[in-house]
Design goal:
Elements (H helix, E strand, L loop, with lengths): L2 E4 L1 E4 L2 E8 L17 H24 L7 H14 L2 H14 L3 H17 L4 H4 L1 H18 L31 E5 L4 H6 L7 E4 L7 H9 L3 E3 L4 H4 L5 E5 L4 E4 L3 H22 L15 E6 L5 H6 L5 E5 L14 H14 L5 E4 L29 H6 L2 H14 L5 E5 L5 H20 L7 E7 L2 H4 L2 H7 L2 E4 L1 H9 L17 H16 L3 E4 L10 H6 L4 E4 L4 H9 L3 H13 L8
Parallel strand pairs: 3-4, 4-5, 5-6, 9-10, 9-16, 10-11, 11-12, 12-13, 13-14, 14-15
Antiparallel strand pairs: 1-8, 2-6, 3-7, 7-8
The structure holds phosphoenolpyruvate and magnesium ion.
Amino acid sequence: MTFSVHGLAVSRGVAIGRAVLVASSRADVGQYFVGPDKTETEIERVRISCNAVTDEITRLQNDLPKDAPHEIAALLDVHLMLLQDEQLIDGINHWITDRHYNAEWALITQYELIARQFDEMEDPYLRERKADLEQVIERILRHMKGVASPLQHVGGRAGSSRKHSQDLLLDDTQDVPLVLVAHDISPADMLQFKQSLFAGFATDVGGKTSHTAIVARSMDIPAVVGARSASQLIKQDDWVIIDGEAGVLIVDPSPIILAEYGFKQRQGELERQRLNRLKNTPALTMDGQRIELLANIEMPDDTLGAVEAGAVGVGLFRSEFLFMGRHGKLPDENEQYQAYRKAIEGMQGLPVTIRTVDIGSDKPLDRPAGKVQDRHLNPALGLRAIRWSLADPPMFLTQLRAILRAAFHGRVNLLVPMLAHASEIRQTLALIAQARAQLDKHGVPYGPVHLGAMIEVPAAALTVPLFLRYFDFLSIGTNDLTQYTLAIDRADEAVAHLYDPCHPAVLRLIADTIAECQRQGKGITVCGEMAGDITMTRLLLGLGLRSFSMHPSQILAVKQQILRADTAKLKVWAQQVRDSEEPGLLL
Ligand code: PEP
Ligand code: MG
């Protein structure tokens, strides 16, 4: 039966595919796709493990003392029966053969399906058989660990305590479009999906500017976050439509709905083709103002998409993605240098703004538990970004040296996140000087950098002149500026309705920052999600912004807005919007 689940729209477009659920009950089991030539091996692993469990239970039965309560023998009988249950075995084989799931994933998936059926049973005795099934599954899984999968290297990490998307990389043998549904996905795991072929994704939790959503947006696939109980309501293999624009999931759609969304999908494709024609058109407003359109990237390879979309540089390289999901092993100076250099060379002479590491909050490092940043109650207000860097000078110096060395190969801007205090500014600059001195001492070549600060806490936005004394340019991080001005956790869907970059207080901070930079002739960019939101383009232009940094996939749509804009007219209107009680209503 068709039903819909509502969440928050993350990225435009429509995806139609079968749901791949990241199993909620057994998140510690490796989940990955296997090629068609490996399905027999996986089925064999299940068979060997089931046989081993059958032997184990039979032995237990034989060894039961004569006076053991007869319930125990009966229970073991039930377990033996479950091991031969056709629904279980056939289901597992189906997931492996038809969906190319690895053995463990197939087992968990089928277990969840049957467990749901048990939950729905009227008879309490039968309902309780779910616990027996669970025990049998546990036993099989234990045995499977001993039966090596030829694909363990692909990422199957039995025993790991988190879901890892690299375990879910799709191979290109899939012919049915698949959409990923999960309770939550970490930003680092989300990044892994860039290499996969998922057509869309949905999560129960997350806000529109959570970093998971940001990475999804950068992938330019339809996505919905904050869909509350989607991962419970949607079953494995259900047909799901993800409407990334409306923030809706439609499950088990009727033929009429499917046809309508199929039409929408084709319309979206046509719109993309139309936008593609703007690739080589200069970003000039109707009154001749040249607007700088820059790219936000997470990894050096993203520069390909940036150049392709016609970005005139990288306005934000979120370097923390080089640091995340590595189980605490941070990238050394050389690895970082190579990554930054790759990004610089990828931009073919265009400038690259490398932001120093912004770890913390919803971007944990994934270090072993117990490290200092994991212990705090309010991570968004805790040891994050520059605070984290200044707390570990050797780590920070390593990154600074790597960036300075990379700057030898092209135009680099070095951007510092989340500064608030003059003392932090001074410490940061001292460490940059120290990094230069270290390179000088060892005769290592390095290049000049422009220094920039992010304005993303109200304290910074209210002291812009201080920042301009020390920095060559500023970049407004509207995602955090909104979060910290309104005291709204940007990753929390429960308060997402209050997260509003158009709140008069936020707009005032943005407008005043732009105005002060202009007055002093310093560069000012917006690099938060607002810059790539076409409903905000006119407002930002009216407030005087001339430099926007966004995901490459958003550049052409924003350019289209720019081509239609007249900044002289927008200026007057933007002042009215800024001064209004509810600016959002005027957009
Ligand atoms: C921002 O806060 O707006 C920003 C660009 O940084 P991030 O989203 O990585 O926190
Ligand atoms: Mg930020």
